[in-house]
Amino acid sequence: MSVIGIVCEFNPFHNGHKYLIDSVKKDGDIIVAVMSGNFVQRGEPALFPKEYRIKSALECGADIVLELPFIYATASAEIFAEVAVTILDAFGCEKIAFGAENADIEAVKTTANILSNDVFSASVAKKLKTGISYPAARQAAFLEYGVNFDISAPNNILGVEYVKAINKMKSEIIPVAVKRLGAGYNDMEATDGFASASYLRKLIFENCDFSEFVPSTVGKIYADALKNGSYVSFEKYNTAMLSVLRQNVYSDLSHIANMAEGLENRIKSAVKKNITVQAIYDTAKTKRFTHSRIRRTVLAACFGITAEDLKISVPYCRLTGFRTEKNDELGLLASKCKIPFAVRSSDIKNIGSFDVDRVFEFENKSTDFYNLILHNSQISASEMTFSPIKMK
User: Fold this and answer.
1) Tally: H helices and E strands in the chain
2) What angle do CA 32, 34, 35 make, to 5 degrees?
3) pTM, whole model, 2 decimals?
4) Cβ pair 121, 31 in contact under 8 A
5) Where does the chain have alpha helices with state H?
6) What does the angle CA 100 – CA 106 – CA 111 come to, to the nearest 5 degrees?
7) What are the tens digits of pLDDT across the range 238-291?
């Protein structure tokens, strides 16, 4: 038996995710998914609440689902990956599997070593001074090493970050890369039954049939979510975000996570001048500050996530779902977990530390906010009564 970790958002779950799980899971293996909650690394809310996405994971091969806390799930790729690997390592995973545009694991490892090198960082800094964007500077510096690997491809980026995290922690987790099939990360066309999450969200927004691109059981789960109004209204999200940002814009934002010199004033000016969140992103963007950086920074400003908050080492491992036939294996892994293991919110509260309380406070705030922006808004404080989802 192998315990295999997968880092995921499942926003939403699709055939490509099922392919990844099926590619690495053999009889007797345990698949442990570390999944973002109600917000994702793009700096935006997930389309469906975490409950529906957890159910989808459990229906399609995941045995145990753990939560990637909100402040880390919406951070940079480096922090996102490092915290996810920390949780998997603490929980006893022997491998981490991920999809990649380039599944040559040796190339992934080589790239991770290059990107961790101080000489590489210095080269990127030098190229930034020429006025090009950070991604362009990074790519230009990497090309000098002559390695055949695309560090601009989204899944490649995360794969490299997982390996960097493994190296930094000196973890014994073995990385396993699986070739991504069909449509690319942001492709707006489907290929051979595989569609990107971006394209799936577009189909759902436009009330189009998406059934061929998701496993049948997942299609039923998401159909229920749509019927119940348990999906994000981006009109509500826009209003809620602007309401908070317009209040926060008069405060000092220099301590906010992802903030940099010049960015604070750009964001404040963009908030004052625009009436949509997308317009704020577009107005604040420059060659130096990408859309993704802006989205994450604006979200951090909305919730008050500081640079110091992101320095908190992940303080707990929280169970959010499991298959009941794996209850014995779950109990064994939980008993050996290297960080406090939590099943209920009371378990988190009973740990009794400032860092734990701080991280969970953001979890509560983000869920309360998320519940408000659903098509059928939900009550607050639901995070305090959340119980892991069980599936037979």
Assistant:
1) 17, 10
2) 130
3) 0.95
4) no
5) 15-24, 50-59, 70-73, 77-90, 105-115, 118-128, 134-143, 154-169, 197-205, 216-227, 234-248, 263-273, 277-284, 291-303, 327-335, 345-351, 354-372
6) 75
7) 999 999 999 999 899 999 999 988 899 999 999 999 999 999 999 999 878 888
